[in-house]
Amino acid sequence: MINGKRILALITARGGSKGIPNKNIKPLNSKPLLAWTIEAAKKSKYVDRLVISTDSPEIADVARSFGCEVPFVRPASLAQDNTSSMDVIAHALDNLEESFDYLLLLQPTSPFRTTYQIDECTFQAVTNATPILVSVSECHSHPSFVYTLEGSKLQPESGKVSKQLRRQDLPATYEHNGSLYVADINYLRLHESFNTPDTEAYIINGYTAIDIDTPDDWTMAELIALGLERQNA
Q1: The 3-state secondary structure of the chain, one letter per residue
Q2: Which keywords, in A-to-Z order, does the entry hold (predicted)?
């Protein structure tokens, strides 16, 4: 709780991962991927309740074993490839017997976010009365360097051909990294999106911003996890 505001941490983890089978419970070095997020959230000094939304009994069992609540089962209709995250969030909020002021959305595919980042982001949102705060990282490629193909010819994604500038001469651009989403629940229900005119940025760079989506991402995450274990040994 912060300034009298109750915080719900919601982990979303469906069972139908295709790119990396059983991704959410696959061991990332010493523990299941899901456990990295649970352990970081459980150490937060602001989270009032930590729950998971999942359709998978296996994921539910792993979550419980690491101390995360599983107060409901997500229906299969909300665990499809095209399911909206807003529908999953609404289902979770509607199936809890108590109310909260802020939602902290955590995805298991960002295993290296820290408890410090969770608390700092949450504190910033609540104390500044920010309705939506989303973690972002600086883009590796500036939009000026992004192209589509017309046949074999490069076409600037911006639609304009301009003088090639050095990256350091261009303003920084940012993208969602999927690690942290904090929202005033009433505001989120009204707008049904994390992308609003009032959305503010919480910047995370480096390995803590990694989002695991592909097998190559997983390989990189394994190397990072191994390095962290050796560092803390």
Answers
A1: CECCECEEEEEECCCCCCCCCCHHHCEECCEEHHHHHHHHHHCCCCCCEEEEECCCHHHHHHHHHCCCECCCCCCHHHCCCCCCHHHHHHHHHHCCCCCCCEEEEECCCCCCCCHHHHHHHHHHHHHCCCCEEEEEEECCCCHHHCEEEECCEEEECCCCCCCCCCHHHCCCCEEEEEEEEEEEHHHHHHHCCCCCCCEEEEECCCHHHCCCCCHHHHHHHHHHHHHHHHHHC
A2: Nucleotidyltransferase, Transferase
